[in-house]
Amino acid sequence: MSTRVRYEIADRVATVTLDRPERKNPLTFEVYAELRDWFRERRDDARVRAVVLTGAGGNFCSGGDVHDIIGPLTQRSEGELLEFTQMTGDLVKAMRDCPQPIVAAVDGVCAGAGAILAMASDLRYGTARASVAFLFVRVGLAGCDMGACALLPRLVGLGRASELLYTGRAIGGETALNWGFFNEICEPDVLLQRAGAVAVSIANGPSAAHAVTKRMLTHELAMPLEEAIDAEAHEQALLMRGKDFRRAYDAFVEKRVPAFEGD
């Protein structure tokens, strides 16, 4: 693992911290690949039932490092450029394929690929001083980066997504909340605590069911409604055969809180 990302596990929650605060936690070639591999490896990690993604030093992530990524990309061949863009897209795929729900805790700068990482998370908690911007147009690139044209309209609507992607405009935390990008605004000093508490609450729930919910939220984006309803019927029937479903019933009958075990 690099020294630019920190990983901690407690209470069945993994906290991933982008840790290069002097540069507002930018992404490098190595960090992209490391995060991709880390999220892929969580598929079979029984220790982790939820993930918190955050940044150190009062900022979330400033996106791709200008000197470590953008400069070198101008010297790469067409094949090498495609290899890079597919690798960055694979990070988003890994986040969406990761069965554990991901809670982003976003303070300060959340720009470019950093905004994509927040967007690819399942829940986003921010601060009023957060600044969210999709900056690809400012470096002469399209907004269709790492799934932005597919996912962002589903968070904020087509018109607002179009504005953000065409203009590179930065929006503050309150606007991001009103537009549906953030789930909640917190004070900076309690942001990580709040995101962690939500993650612990998720981790204490039925993890197998959460994994199905996450998978279906992603897959049903491209399904007709009738197909989605049928797919959900099959998934829910399978879960009804699980032990967590029976545990919930027994706990209700016995007037206690169920202890879910993820099976």
How would you characterize the overall build of this protein?
With 263 residues, the protein is an alpha/beta fold. It has 2 domains: 5-203, Alpha-Beta Complex (2-enoyl-CoA Hydratase, Chain A, domain 1), CATH 3.90.226; 207-253, no CATH class. Helices cover 48% and strands 15% of the residues. The chain has 11 helices and 9 strands. It has helices at 29-41, 66-73, 78-97, 113-120, 148-156, 158-167, 173-179, 191-203, 207-219, 225-239, 243-253; strands at 5-10, 13-18, 50-55, 102-106, 109-111, 123-127, 131-133, 170-172, 184-186. The strands form 2 sheets. It has a 6-stranded mixed sheet, sandwiched between helices. A hairpin with a 2-residue loop joins strand 1 and strand 2. Helix 1 (29-41) runs parallel beside helix 3 and helix 5 (148-156) packs across helix 6 (158-167). The chain is globular. The chain starts with a strand and ends in a 10-residue tail after the last helix.
